[in-house]
Amino acid sequence: SSSSMLDGNGVFNLNFNYRDKILHIAALKGDKGKLAYLESLGFTLSSSMNVARYISSSAHNNTLPSLINKVTSIKQLLFLPTHSTHDDHYQFLIKNIRLIMCHLSISIDEDMQHTFSFFEKVQAKRGGLNILASQDAAFRCLIESFPRILLLSLNNHISPILDFLQNIGIPADHIPNIILAFPPILLWNVRLLQTRVLALNQVRQFFSFVFCIYRQ
């Protein structure tokens, strides 16, 4: 109950965890708590409102507990615990994103246009692209530009995509970089991803063949 959640001074009882506190605030505010929860993750008020509005407009399960579970699970799946060996990975990612922004500024592909927009929004923030090295900041940037990720099924969509990436030889600790370099890949289904990977392999084999002929 609300009374047992607070002590005599109106402060949260230490026996209650973060999730319980968020649910309590949601009950008090009467807005289903999504806005308060998103702000607690570091989203600005305007970003929280945009993401919450997007989530609420869908036909999916939109309860606050389901959102908390989805955010926690996605962060665990996509962003591994930071290790010092990962620093070089993020610097390599940031360097290549800068190259992409310089040399591929125009694209007729909708997914690439959305990705460029994502890069530009991150670049405009304080700290620029370097904030992608921060897992919490990278997650916020990802969701601000691609809120649909929060509507994806963990078991039926996200996990199969991540499993596929590992099965084609991408190490688990490199997958966050793949996602940040091209977020729309998470929105594809496995069949589409398989088709595009096959096409890339065929292009690679063709150019390898041409290169061999050229060398002769």
TrEMBL record:
InterPro entries: MTERF, MTERF_sf. Keywords: Transcription, Transcription regulation, Transcription termination, Transit peptide. It comes from the Eukaryota. One of its GO terms (molecular function) is nucleic acid binding. The keyword Iron does not apply. Transmembrane segments: none annotated. Pfam families: mTERF. One of its GO terms (biological process) is DNA-templated transcription termination. Coiled coil: none annotated. Belongs to the mTERF family. This is Uncharacterized protein.
